[in-house]
Specification:
By secondary structure, this protein is an alpha+beta fold. It contains 23 helices and ten strands.
Length: 578
Amino acid sequence: MPYHRGGDASSQADKLSGIVEESDLYEGFAPHVETSEIKTLDFYNLPKQTGKEPALRSYTEIQQLLQQGKKRDVKNILRENSWPINSPIRAQLWPMLCGQHQTKQQMLDGFYWEMVHQVFGTTELSEKPIMLPAFVDATHCLPYHLTSTGRAVADRIVNVLGYDCPDITYSPVLYPITSILLHFMSEEEAYICLAGLVGSKEKVFINQTKLQHEVTWKTVMQIAKKHTKSATSYFQRICPGLKLERIFMDWCWWILAGLPFQHLVRIMDCYFHEGIKVLYRVALVILNLFHKECQSNNEWSPDNIKNDIGNALIKFCKKIPVSPAKLLHAAFSIRGLSTQYISRIFIKTEMLLKSRSVLTSGSKQLIKSRSSDNLPTSQSQVNIQMMSHTLTIREKLHSESCRNLLFTLWSWLPVRITMYQPVLLYTTEEHGCSLTTFYVRVEQHEPTLLMIKTCNNEVFGAYCSSRWFERNVKDDKGQRQAYFGTGETFLFSLYPERAKYPWVGIEGDKDLGHSSELFMAADSKMITIGGGEGQAIWMDENIRFGKTDSCKTFNNPPLCPSGDFEIRVLEVYGFVGI
């Protein structure tokens, strides 16, 4: 059952240390941590304080900022405040940071222990080893400084999480993250934190499938080619027979298995708030630092590392020559690495992998089904056709023609989206012609399928990959971005022509410039999809008139011959369960 901080934890720390004067070294750790190991770390050998440093911020201060919605201020505090590794702040701070990402209803008291009893038949911790779920990578079950009891607790947590989240099929980093959390909190608290990270919709924290895992390391590789060009070119040059992919496949282990624990804890302070992009930044700094050491230190000479750069990188990380504060400062000083940029690279990489229909391992085909398995259920199809004015097009269109049209549209959707049932969110026929109403009913849904039927019976639209609410999201400088969305967005025409117009960037790795990434834009006066020398779809605030042009983002022709159109019906669909 959960432990309570206070006298018990302090007395246990005293017993473990054996020295009363040093008991404060362990006050921040949970009882299932081998604190005698942590004592050997040099976290107490930090540069002496001069007295001029600003005071470290408290949990209460950060809590108040989060409650006020000042997430950017919280981000800056987390980046700049180097709390000692043993600081008790993390016992409260980490659960609060992870909890803000929770999308499900708050767990009832005792929920976790009920799940434990359901899975194991008892809440008593078994002395026998527990078989781990298939999604765990057995070679990377990193315990860090957990005791044998702590490791058994970590085993139990990932089992319960696997039971509660059956969609997790491959997640090698989940166990190490579990172990790190357990250094500062109870079993139940660690589980609730993980549930928040796994269930997060707005930010990515933990990959949960093999596809996501592969897309992630390939994304890191693509970013590194641009932001650490000298380092990646150097490693490619000294190992001409080694594909660059082999180095980046293990990128997360540079951090999770390589870096000293005090570095890792400070990285987690930021990661639990900002997401996986923090790890991307740290990986780039590691590459640059290793490159510099390779040029000045014989230990990392080409002859010594060329046969196994992967292991050499992890060994380098174990004795990384910078402090946690300097590592993070360098990571957050990398320019041009915005969340939007990373998201575009990620989506582009994911789409390229899917288009090639095979994972690098060659063990799993990602072939897009052309059968009716990818269509909505027959009842859902009936519901759509009864509700929809755009899909029907004409009153006399036969049901078979409607089915073919639906089949065409469904075959264009991303494979994962076809697994969900469509639901009509907004239609001008029922909800009126108002952009305000459109936002109220649609803006929190992601993705959405927008379809327009003109007064000339043309039917076209767009698959919009991001929430329309993102029109209000501000960047790191506090400015609203004019355009948002990702490369998964595409245009289509259904009648009289049938055609799909995907993002131009899917064709290759070439940088096509800003005008090729103008996916979605919106404000109180209009909606726009596609840009660059024209707007693919533009609608006014009354959702009555619009225009369509060719644009650079999708390289599309005007979606109706006249260019200008009058809207007869606008419908927007979401997908249940996403």
